[in-house]
Design brief:
The complex is a heterodimer of chains A (265) and B (278). Chain A is of the alpha/beta class. Chain A has helices spanning 2-8, 64-72, 103-107, 112-126, 142-154, 172-189, 200-206, 229-239; strands at 24-35, 38-49, 53-57, 79-83, 89-91, 160-164, 192-197, 209-214, 217-222. The chains are: A alpha/beta (265), B mainly alpha (278).
């Protein structure tokens, strides 16, 4: 892990953690997951605080989706702990709306008694779909369907919001609108957010902290606030192995996320 | 101005329709033309004595017989008896098929235990069991209902299992995230998700039930549409025989439209079944 080695000697001109005062939305330590012989997640430690927006970048198969599924409770880790207050809200790449339920019933799914129709209607209005509560999912565009999925994820005010490449299937213009909507919703509800994405620009634009995952480990951690966006973009691309490494360039400050180098084979 | 634009204009403007045959609005009426012509030819041929009444009575004669039997009330007694048998068998077979499908669809253990046996029994054409049914039940009502239930059970079972299998596992993951209790998962996700397939099963089952009923009613009976036909055969009353065939057909069509009605009612969300889609 030469990348990590480079990044350990770093300087910080901003407070260590902007969200230090907020309660933890999730705390992961020593997480490990193997499929047969293959170690998909070697060891991951990660804290996300309420209100903090964390992006997880990495190429396909690096274990980032497995990590998100573990946090969502859909995948059981082989070792390590995940501590989170309450169930997270999740938005997937596909909207996963029930085609046979109206929009409000989709938003309130599983919590019809506590949320009720009124709560679901409010959540729909919040994502810009006021008055559509009786409509069927099949009458929605891709962007609108993802809005409903967002409303469903946030309707119970979860402390942790997990986004698994939620905008990957949308066209570029819709994606820009969705970014603005997500930013707005997160600033209002203030959950801790973990977004898994391939899109470096999306990560820079949305996140307070960007994690790069490689070979089942978090190999780098950056705060966009510390960087010039253009330089950060090329730094991230080099860390992702997309362009030739310029990671050692002066001024490229990075900080691995709690990199307690664990020796696990 | 015969320039570049003209070929496109030619394509865009259709040639003026010739006569009324280009008018698609007439097609539904046109489809009735053939049956009406056949009926008229048949009636004429019967009246002129080209067809012997014992072979094929005139349509008007069949209508007269129907009126006569309806007036005395005899027709409704038989119709009621037949419908009761069909309904009884359908409810019995459908319930058992559905219950078995739920068990097999949800529990891998039930699947391992039951599915192979059910598939084996399914391989038997249910009409081949007729002699055995007579031995077991004699010729009274229970044997007939048994035969109808057997005909209904398998289409309902197979399509319900299929419907449960086809439910998107991604939706079940969603249920897991929302922390829904299992009965809510069944009610909100599994039953509606399996419904299109279940209703296909119901439609097949209705067709099979009718077939089973026709065969079951040719056994010794004293009531029912089948009895009407068998009794008429003894006395060469071809008009009554023809009438019972027509009644069987009508009820078959009625059962099918009932299934379609259920589909439009229950599957309004489904693009293939939405109102006006067919």
């Amino acid at each position: 892990m030469n990348l990590a080695a480079i990044q350990t000697g770093l300087h910080d001109h901003l407070p260590d953690d902007l969200f230090a005062g907020s309660p933890l939305a999730v705390s992961v330590s020593g997480l490990q997951r193997r499929y047969g012989e293959r170690l998909v997640i070697k060891s991951v430690d990660l804290d996300i605080r309420e209100g903090e927006f964390v992006a997880l970048l990495g190429e396909s198969g690096c274990g980032k989706t497995t990590l998100l599924r573990a946090l969502a409770g859909l995948d059981k880790p082989d070792a390590g702990t995940i501590e989170a207050p309450g169930a997270p809200g999740v938005v997937f790449q596909e909207h996963r709306l029930l085609p046979w339920a109206s929009l409000w019933a989709n938003v309130a799914l599983g919590h019809e008694k506590t949320i009720g129709r009124a709560g679901a209607v409010r959540a729909l209005a919040e994502v810009g779909l006021a008055g559509r509560e009786e409509d069927w999912p099949r009458n929605l565009s891709g962007g609108q369907a993802q809005r409903v999925a967002l409303a469903r994820a946030l309707v119970r005010d979860p402390k942790l919001l997990l986004l698994d490449e939620p905008f990957a299937a949308l066209d570029a213009l819709t994606r820009i609108k969705m970014h603005a909507l997500v930013r707005e919703l997160v600033s209002r509800h203030r959950p801790g957010v973990l977004i898994v994405t391939h899109d470096v620009e999306e990560a820079i634009g949305l996140a307070d902290r960007i994690l790069v995952m490689r070979d089942g480990q978090i190999s780098a951690s950056h705060r966009p606030i510390d960087h010039d966006p253009v330089k950060l973009r090329s730094l991230l691309l080099s860390e992702l192995g997309v362009i030739a490494s310029r990671a050692s360039a002066p001024g490229a400050s990075s900080k691995p996320d709690k990199l307690k180098s664990r020796t696990d084979k | 101005m015969a320039d570049i634009a003209s070929p496109y204009q030619e394509i865009a403007a259709p040639k003026p329709a010739r006569a009324g045959f280009q008018n698609k609005a007439l097609y539904p009426w046109l489809s009735w033309l053939m049956p009406v012509v056949i009926l008229c030819v048949w009636e004429t041929a019967s009246r002129l004595g080209w067809i012997a009444p014992q072979v094929m009575p005139a349509p008007s004669r069949v209508a007269e017989t129907a009126w006569e039997l309806a007036r005395t009330g005899e027709l409704f007694v038989h119709l009621g008896a037949s419908l009761l048998r069909a309904a009884g068998g359908f409810v019995l077979g459908g319930t058992i098929g559905f219950a078995l499908a739920l068990a097999v669809g949800f529990s891998p253990l039930a699947h391992a235990l039951l599915d192979r046996s059910i598939q084996m029994i399914r391989a038997i054409p249910f009409l081949a069991l007729l002699p055995l049914v007579i031995v077991w039940f004699g010729v009274d009502e229970s044997g007939k209902i048994f035969l109808v239930s057997l005909a209904v059970l398998f289409p309902v079972y197979i399509n319900t299992v299929l419907g449960i299998r086809q439910i998107d596992p991604k939706l079940l993951e969603l249920a897991k995230i929302t922390g829904m209790p299992w009965f809510a998962v069944v009610r909100r996700i599994i039953i509606p998700g399996a419904m299109p397939s279940v209703l296909t099963g119901v439609r097949y089952a209705l067709a099979h039930a009718w077939l089973a009923l026709v065969v079951a009613e040719t056994l010794a009976t004293t009531r029912g549409i089948g009895f009407l036909a068998m009794d008429a055969r003894e006395f060469l009353q071809t008009d009554v025989i023809l009438l019972s065939i027509i009644i069987y057909a009508t009820i078959g069509v009625g059962a099918d439209s009932l299934a379609r009605l259920l589909e439009t009612r229950l599957l309004g969300w489904h693009p293939n079944f939405a109102k006006g889609a067919r």
